[in-house]
Amino acid sequence: MTTFEAARLVAAREIKVKLRDKTFLFSTVFFLLIAIGSVTLPILLDDDPQNVAVSTSATASSEALSRAGLTVLPASSDAEATRMVRDGDADAAVVGGPKVIALDEAPSPVVKALSEAPPVELLEPSDRDPAVEFLVPFVLAFIFFTTSLTFGLQIAQSVTEEKATRIVEILVASIPARAMLAGKVAAMSLLAFGQIALITLVAFAGMQLAGVDTTIVSLIAPAIGWFLPFFIVGFIMLATLWAGAGALAARQEDLAGVSAPLQMIVMIPFFLTIFLSDNALAMKVLSYIPLSAPLAMPVRAFTGDLAAWEPFVSLALLALTALATLGIGARLYEGSLLRTNGRTSFATAWRSRSLIN
Amino acid sequence: MTDVLTVDAVSRSFGDRQVLKDVTFGVTAGRLTGFVGANGAGKTTTMRIILGVLAADQGAVSWRGAPLDRPTRQRFGYMPEERGLYPKMTVTDQIVYLGQLHGLSREDARRRTAALLERLQLTDRGGDQVEKLSLGNQQRVQIAAALVHDPEVLVLDEPFSGLDPIAVETVVGVLRERAGAGAPVLFSSHQLELVERLCDDLVIIADGVIRAAGSRAELRSSYALPRFAIEVAADAGWLRDQPGVTLVSLDGPSAVFDLDGAHDDQEVLRAAVARGPVRSFGPVRPSLAEIFREVVTS
Fold first, then answer.
1. Were B33 and a residue from A236, A351, B45, B201 both cysteine, which residue would form a disulfide, CB within 3.0 to 4.6 Å?
2. How far apart are CA A250 and CA B83, in angstroms?
3. Are B95 and B116 in contact (CB under 8 A)?
4. What is the pLDDT of residue B193?
5. Which ranges constitute the DSSP H helices of chain B?
6. Residues A1, B103: C-beta atoms closer than 8 Å
7. How many CB pairs under 8 A join A and B?
8. How far apart are CA A62 and CA A212, in angstroms?
9. Dihedral of the CA atoms A220, A222, A227, A233 (nearest 10)?
């Protein structure tokens, strides 16, 4: 049996176990609900005024209101219009003056329809909504952050479980440790990508169903296009380190301590990218550092301030680093797998290399 | 008889502590070889090195004259001292999975698993998670895990520890069956009586050094003391005054005694016959426990 076949068997078992794991299923459903909610709820909860009561003393406003897409409800008097707002029959009212009446908030669409805006000329027009401009980098960084953290922890847990239950010795006596490592990383990567793909698909379908403007999807396409390769390579880079960390712990209780440095390695680049996303120079630097490149480079691809070759160079750097961490993770893994008595120190695991396969 | 599995001058240290020193012995096909030693003597380390789970600092393990490689090791059945299974996996899934890791096809693994569970009287527990089983049954699953791929060699580290008497008999049966089919079987155990009853060959290790190795009969004769047992019709107290005899025990008509090198056992027998009927007379073969004590302390 080749190492590849062994790795495939390991991966198949991991996936099968995860797909039956209630925590995993629950979290997937939870993320799906959040995804559906966040794209559809703003539409459903949209409380912008729709119906505007217009009293007879303000009929001149009716035409402007209709033009703005609002429904005009005629009211016999100012008092009647006010009563309609109070009773909830109308979201707002326009009475003589003209004066706009609403319950607890100035109805900006009504005010806007009745005012005359001065002409605006933009010297460098952007075709994007500023909200989108802020949200996209944040969402992409957040997806990478949460996925690499949660799935990374699960890789570590699954490695620790094999040590804690002592089955690991039978496993390494049957197949190379590297096959076990590769199988685990492959399985978790597939599950992570699958979960994200599913959530994206459902969110997109939700947007279609809720009638959300999907032109945003074409706007963020370049960012997504770069996000995928960076995500995959970045995820694998961290995954082997997580497996190595998991092997250092002999029991699940040790895992938090052992994986703390790794959690920092995932968290610090995330917060840097979020807080420095307006700083072009900082983003440029971050987009080349392998730990933050999966977060920062797609953002730069989205904002568009980069030369065409830049993502390729950064991705190559990231891939080289991933190869190095594969080596580090595998060595820690092999060096600590059979040390089932308590926590193994990084240095001991690094030096021991007890396995010969 | 030729050794198919040979451990040749293997040494291993952990840090400053040398746990194996020039360990050399062989395991013969079709025979049960017992590996005996005190805790920390190096049994587990040796077995781990045979299985390739641990690397030797020096020396090598060979199989039919060639260095042991991974494809060959895949056909080994191994039961580590530290038992372990996936607690939340069902018995059947677990054994099938381990069979596949040893290179069986899915169908073969399923077929072998069903047969083994039947043999180990676990058929009705196949769908249960391992953690739901009693400890004794978990041990049986562990045995199934070592046997699922129909191994050509068995290396078992303390296979009887933690087993109930019925399971011990099952394992004994399985080991004999494998040896009978021509497989070399190496197992370690603390239970010297069990080893004595089972083994064809013995390897005794102390402080990382092989102190004795060979067939049970060989070891017994080479470590046999000049000790004899006699049973006569009347009281055997006269033996006290017999030249060259040191009494070990005396109980009316029966006695056990050691004889110094200058005197012949037949001399004593003649003296006994001269005094009356002799019911039995013969050398006392040392028990494994006695040999072990002598080998380890010498």
1. B201
2. 15
3. yes
4. 85
5. 43-51, 70-73, 91-101, 106-119, 135-147, 165-180, 192-198, 216-222, 265-275, 288-297
6. yes
7. 69
8. 28
9. 170
Query: Exposed, middle or buried, A51 (CB in 10 Å: 0-12/13-18/19+)?
Result: middle
- Output b/e per residue, B181-203; b: 16+ Cβ within 10 A: eebbbbbbbebbebbbebbbbbb
Beta-carbon separation of B54 and A354 below 8 A? yes
A334 contacts in chain B (CB < 8 Å):
none
Nearest by Cα to B255 from B241, B235, B271: B235
Interchain contact A356–B (C-beta under 8 A):
yes
pLDDT, tens only, B182-205: 999 999 988 888 888 889 999 999
CB environment B10-42: b (16+ within 10 A), e (fewer): bbbeeeeebbbbebebbbbbebbbbbbbeeebb
Please tell me whether the interface predicted TM-score (ipTM) of this complex is above 0.85: no
Parallel, antiparallel or unpaired: strands B185-188 and B32-37: parallel
User: Are the CB atoms for B35 and B187 separated by under 8 Å?
Assistant: yes
Sheet of B17-28: strands edge to edge? B17-28, B3-14, B58-63, B66-67
Question: Residue A264 and residue A260: Cα distance in Å, rounded?
Answer: 6
- Contact state of A9 with B100 under an 8 Å Cβ cutoff: yes
Q: Going along chain A, which residue ranges are E strands?
A: 51-55, 71-75, 92-95, 99-101
10 Å CB burial of residue A239 (0-12, 13-18, 19+) is buried
Query: In 3-state terms, chain A is what percent helix, strand and coil (to 5)?
Result: 70, 5, 25
* Residues forming beta bridges with residue B163, ordered by sequence position: none
Q: Do B54 and A1 touch (CB under 8 A)?
A: no
Residue A221, classed as helix, strand or coil, is helix
Q: What is the pLDDT of residues B26-80, one digit of tens each?
A: 999 999 999 999 888 999 999 999 998 888 899 999 999 899 888 898 899 999 9
Crossing angle of the two packed helices A130-164 and A252-275, in degrees rounded to 10: 160
User: In angstroms, rounded to a whole number, what is the distance separating the alpha carbons of residues A354 and A109?
Assistant: 72
Q: Tokens standing for A179?
A: 């096959």
Q: Which two tokens stand for residue A187?
A: 């399985």
